[in-house]
Amino acid sequence: MAVTGVVLAGFIVGHLLGNLQIFIGRDTFNGYAEGLKKLHVLLWGTRAALLVSVALHIWSTIQLAARRSSARPVAYQKYTAQTSSYASRTMYMSGPIVAAFIVYHLLHFTIGVGGTPYDAGDPYGNVVAGFKVIPVALAYVIAMGLLCLHLRHGLASFLQTLGVNHPAYTPKIKLAASLIAGLIFLGFSSIPVAVMAGVVS
Ligand code: HEM
């Protein structure tokens, strides 16, 4: 789960940096998207790595849930969280919601059946037309919030899963994870917000 999570988080950071070029303008953003499509090996290599990572990440979730319930088959009568964070307790909810978002997102901007105007040769126009529909833009912002809640715990705990755990470093790792997740939220959300505000049009 930790290794596939890092692969997925790496894609998310790369995708964010690519998407922020929307603030430079239509030609830059469309040129970037067009350029990626020409790099067939990179494109299909990334798609294959994402598909395998998502499948293994979900498989690990199922295994972990099974181990958790066999370790404690009887539910607590009264559960009071001691040290766990809200982000960690909601991983089993934020994960599937992010997965549902990705399905919609692919239908929306890659396949073009998301219910807003679509032109395969104009990704910039697709993003602007998509986020001009306020409920769609707001749904993206909410999904980004849940994605970053998920990332906050994932980034804080993947090193622990891989064996790096030390009283001196763990609080700093948690702080860094919160900062990175917060920046990712602000970066992605800035796009629908900018379209709604008319800054990107
Ligand atoms: C405001 C936020 C986002 C915007 C504006 C955005 C924009 C886009 C656009 C325009 C495309 C299609 C590119 C093209 O076909 O030319 C795309 C594809 C994609 N996006 Fe996003 N994206 C956002 C957030 C996300 C997030 C958070 C994730 C993952 C959690 C994600 C995952 C993907 C994937 C997997 C693809 C398909 C890539 C491929 O064609 O193989 N996106 N995105």
Provide structural commentary.
This protein has 201 residues and is mainly alpha-helical. The protein has one domain. The chain contains 8 helices and no strands. The mean pLDDT is 96. The structure holds protoporphyrin IX containing FE (HEM). The site of protoporphyrin IX containing FE (HEM) has 19 residues, from α1, α3, α5, α6 and α7.
Q: Spans with pLDDT under 50 lasting ≥5 residues?
A: none
Give the tally of β-strands: 0
**Which shape, going by the Cα principal axes?**
elongated
Number of helices: 8
Helix content: over 70%
Backbone structural class: mainly alpha
Tell me the domain tally.
1
- One letter per element, helices H and strands E, the order comes to HHHHHHHH
Please state the CA-atom Rg, rounded to the nearest Å: 19 Å
Largest sheet, described in full?
A: none
Calculate the terminal CA-CA distance, rounded to whole Å. Answer: 39 Å
Instruction: Give the rounded overall mean pLDDT.
Output: 96
- Strand proportion, as a percent range, falls in under 5%
* Small molecules bound: protoporphyrin IX containing FE
